[in-house]
Specification:
The complex is a heterodimer of chains A (290) and B (164). Chain A is built from 7 helices and 9 strands; from the N terminus they run H-H-H-H-E-E-H-E-E-E-E-H-H-E-E-E. Chain A is of the alpha+beta class and 290 residues long. Chain A is globular. In chain B, 77% of the residues lie in helices and 0% in strands. The chains are: A alpha+beta (290), B mainly alpha (164). The interface between A and B is large, with 48 and 51 residues.
Chain lengths: 290, 164
């Protein structure tokens, strides 16, 4: 949660006393054991961990039955790759109102790709919905615990929707947005940029080439400067020292392809600017290379 | 091979001592006590090294010991904590009109109750996974998530209170 960004900076700048190194060394030295023990306990632990990992994997695979069913019910129309609503999910209770449109891709001619992406989307959305529902429940409990009644209580609205930002025979780009009514901090977006021909998800290196970082960093810095110049009072981007933009980390920086087939870099709320400035988009004018 | 485990642990402690100190300090709010906590946690961990079953768990295992020690220290040091919070209160009162962005969220976190504070520090400052936090706090993932949520709500409430 980015509200904590500044707090994290404060945390990371907690002054380290000079004697820490000494205290640590002394404590280590005084308590070090020199005698050898059997190797058995060590190995036993390692096997147990491996077993847990497998169990978790099996559970994950089994929970997605309803999704697999929904996929079967969909008839194949035409043969153009597309993003469509595979499942629409509405739930109304006294605690929450959920309206979720869950997208999937089809007709790409690449079943592996479709399965992988669709599975990923559906797991992501399941997870996000669960978390949101839990928050709604906690919120209700908090209202009741502090002397409120169900009449004072406004159900949390949870919306999940998607938007196709670009599509042609080779490329599909879409954004899934989740929002929760009572806290805009809980708006989140997930980006999918899919190369249909090669059956893979695209990253910035794929679409802008090896110099992707220089291109993006220069363009974002330029546009931040322009926006600042336009409205000095309201466009208060964080400085790099405050945790603002200091270059993208890697090719997996979030982006989508817009209707003009241009890369649009996205920074979530609070990432590089104060919350009131919302999500920040930067269109990169370079032609994409796929 | 407890000997190997010990080497792994010592290396981990030495490499991460500043991090460990910061965690301790967030609980104790006091340099002396934080140093004592780090020292005590090192002693405890080396004494119990045979209970560390797996190298992978060095970090979470040590965090558990460290946090237990930190909480223990703050309990025996109640007078000091209350005095500290009182001064923090005074300090924040003079900044009443600041924007949300300027409210010192770190001090709000310091004042959260131990359970909420622990999950917030580990998740957001130390970037641990929910499962790791569950292991450290001897709870399950759902409890960790609901504590995170509650912690965030407390922080927001406090921000709301301070920015009115």
């Amino acid at each position: 949660m980015s509200i904590l960004k500044k707090a994290k900076q404060t945390y990371n700048s907690i002054e380290i006393p000079q004697e820490l190194g000494y205290v640590v060394n002394r404590a280590v030295h005084e308590n070090k054991v020199h005698k050898r023990e059997s190797m058995r306990t060590w190995l036993k632990g390692a096997t147990a961990t491996l077993a847990t990992t497998f169990a978790l994997f099996v559970i994950l695979l089994n929970t997605n039955e309803s999704f697999a069913k929904a996929m079967e019910d969909v008839p194949i129309i035409g043969s153009i790759a597309e993003v469509f609503t595979v499942r629409e999910y509405k739930e109304e209770s006294e605690v929450e109102l959920i309206d979720a449109k869950i997208p999937a891709i089809r007709n790409t001619g690449n079943t592996d790709l479709e399965n992988r992406i669709n599975y990923e989307i559906s797991s992501k959305i399941n997870e996000v919905l669960e978390e949101a529902k839990q928050r709604a429940e906690e919120y209700k409990n908090a209202v009741l615990a502090t002397g409120g009644t169900m009449e004072d209580f406004i159900p949390t609205q949870i919306n999940i929707d998607y938007e196709i930002t670009y599509q042609d025979e080779k490329l599909i780009s879409f954004v899934i947005t989740k929002s929760e009514s009572f806290a805009s901090a809980y708006q989140e977006q997930y980006f999918y940029n899919i190369d249909i021909e090669n059956g893979k998800e695209l990253n910035l290196k794929d679409v802008l080439g090896a110099n992707y970082k220089e291109i993006v960093d220069a363009e974002v810095n330029k546009q931040i400067a322009e926006r600042k110049a336009q409205d000095e009072e309201n466009n208060l981007y964080f400085t790099p020292e405050e945790g603002g933009f200091s270059g993208i980390d890697n090719e997996y920086q979030e982006f989508y392809i817009n209707e003009d087939k241009k890369v649009t870099i996205v920074f979530q709320k609070y990432d590089i600017a104060p919350g009131y400035m919302g999500i920040q988009n930067f269109v990169i004018p370079n032609e994409i290379i796929i | 091979m407890a000997h190997l485990a010990q080497e792994v642990l010592i290396e981990y402690i030495k490499e991460n001592q500043e991090k460990l100190y910061r965690i301790a300090y967030t609980y104790t709010k006091n340099q002396e006590t934080a140093l004592d906590v780090v020292q005590e946690a090192i002693t405890k961990s080396l004494e119990n090294i045979n209970k560390l079953r797996n190298e992978e768990y060095v970090k979470t295992w040590f965090y558990r010991i460290l946090i237990n020690e930190a909480i223990k220290a703050t309990k025996s040091d109640k007078y000091f904590i209350e005095y500290e919070s009182a001064t923090n209160e005074l300090f924040s009162a003079s900044h009443e009109n600041d924007l949300v962005e300027n409210i010192d969220i770190y001090t709000i976190i310091q004042k959260l109750n131990q359970k909420l504070k622990t999950v917030i520090i580990l998740r957001f400052f130390e970037n641990l996974k929910i499962e790791e936090i569950a292991y450290i706090t001897k709870t399950n993932a759902n409890t960790v998530k609901s504590r995170l949520y509650k912690g965030m709500e407390e922080i927001k409430k406090e921000i709301g209170r301070r920015s009115v």
